[in-house]
Design brief:
Structural class: mainly alpha
Low-confidence stretches: 349-382
Order of helices and strands: HHHHHHHHHHHHHEE
Number of strands: 2
Number of domains: 2
Oligomer: single chain
Length: 382
């Protein structure tokens, strides 16, 4: 009977070790968006802790300082979680191979994983286990070393465009400022901006779903954010197509499609609910009064507008509905700073883990609605 228990311990340890290694490979190496239960469980649990310190009653600057450490700390703890799981898994293996007591098995496992060799194995089976654990440990270190540069490379590409947008759209960025400044410098009919942001959305979709921690990395400047920049560009494209009397700008329509597909796929990855097929007549969170005020501001600046603003409003709503809900809800989920027509009306989310799925141990999607967030004070205009 004792031999059977030890054999089962070896099998359980091998399964646990392979499962942890598979989790690391799916998180770091696999080039596609895939939910990894261990990774999601660790990040969601850490988010609950951070939410305790980033409460709504605190100012945005205070919450931003807290949340700036969330993604970096999560990555470090994820590596530590993988290491701990491997050490515990091989503890079972060593104990099953006859290393007694369990404390000695744990010491032998830690010695093998770190390749320090202060607790050498005693026979051929434990030699094989020690070598296997050392290879796995070195592999996890190599994965982490290769993982961090790829994350920061994608982060830099994202932030370069966000930073450049401040020159055109202000801080916080708005579509109206973007259009007015393009009109003043003679770029109103140029589609280069929307072409660049179409490529940017494609890049963000790929990187922010294959590397799930990346959306939580916050901009170097606290009042900049990739989501508020996305909203400003998408609204500028929608206003171009619906309201501004200018030449044909086909890249604006392509930019909108690339943008809402990007935001929807990110929302799907994190389990944020949204309507995947909204109708053109569905309501949006922008009111007609806000739209009219934007039109007056553009007209006062000399931007040529279409004569029929009623039709322009219907056309704008038809474009905006494609990204309206997903933009606003993601802005709340990622705690984006204040920006008109996006985070200023966002619905805050709390991450809360639900029950584990029976023996498969699949971590369920955990997002649920809560009350609307309090207003975030707007930063001073530059």
């Amino acid at each position: 009977m004792a031999g059977l228990v030890r054999a089962l311990a070896v099998v359980a340890g091998v399964v646990m070790a392979l499962g942890t290694l598979r989790s690391a490979i799916r998180t770091v190496v696999l080039p596609r968006s895939e939910v990894v239960p261990l990774t999601r469980a660790m990040f969601s649990g850490l988010r609950q802790i951070f939410d305790l310190f980033a409460k709504d009653k605190r100012s945005y600057d205070e919450r931003d300082r807290v949340m700036a450490f969330y993604a970096p700390l999560g990555l470090m703890l994820l590596a530590a979680t993988w290491a701990l799981c491997e050490i515990l898994a091989f503890t079972l293996v060593f104990w099953g191979l006859g290393v007694d007591p369990v404390r000695h098995a744990l010491v032998t496992s830690g010695s093998s994983f770190t390749t320090l060799g202060f607790a050498p194995p005693r026979d051929m089976p434990t030699d094989v286990a020690a070598i296997s654990e050392a290879v796995v440990g070195l592999g996890l270190v190599a994965l982490l070393i290769s993982f961090l540069p790829s994350i920061y490379s994608a982060f830099q590409r994202r932030e370069l465009m966000v930073s450049m947008l401040q020159v055109r759209a202000g801080n916080p960025p708005t579509a109206v400022k973007l259009i007015i400044r393009h009109h003043r410098i003679g770029l109103l009919e140029a589609g280069d901006l929307f072409r660049q942001w179409e490529a940017w959305f494609a890049d963000v979709e790929e990187s922010h779903t294959s590397q799930g921690s990346l959306p939580f990395f916050r901009s170097p400047q606290p009042h900049r954010h990739w989501l508020t920049a996305s909203g400003a560009v998408l609204d500028a494209a929608a206003l171009h197509l619906s309201t501004v009397e200018s030449g044909l700008v086909p890249n604006a329509a392509l930019c909108i499609r690339a943008g809402y597909l990007c935001l929807r796929h990110i929302a799907d990855f994190f389990g944020v609910p949204h309507d995947p097929n909204p109708a053109a007549t569905d309501p949006i969170c922008i009111t007609r009064d806000e739209f009219d005020a934007a039109c007056r501001e553009m007209a006062d600046a000399g931007v040529p507008l279409k004569v029929d603003l009623d039709q322009a409003w219907r056309d704008y709503s038809g474009w905006r509905v494609n990204y309206d809900t997903v933009l606003v809800t993601l802005a709340g989920f990622f705690m984006a700073p204040y920006a008109p027509w996006s985070s200023d009306r966002s619905i805050r989310f709390r991450t809360r883990s639900r029950s584990m799925a029976k023996a498969s141990n699949v971590f369920q999607r955990f997002v649920q609605f809560v009350r609307p967030s309090r207003s975030i004070p707007a930063p001073d205009e530059e």
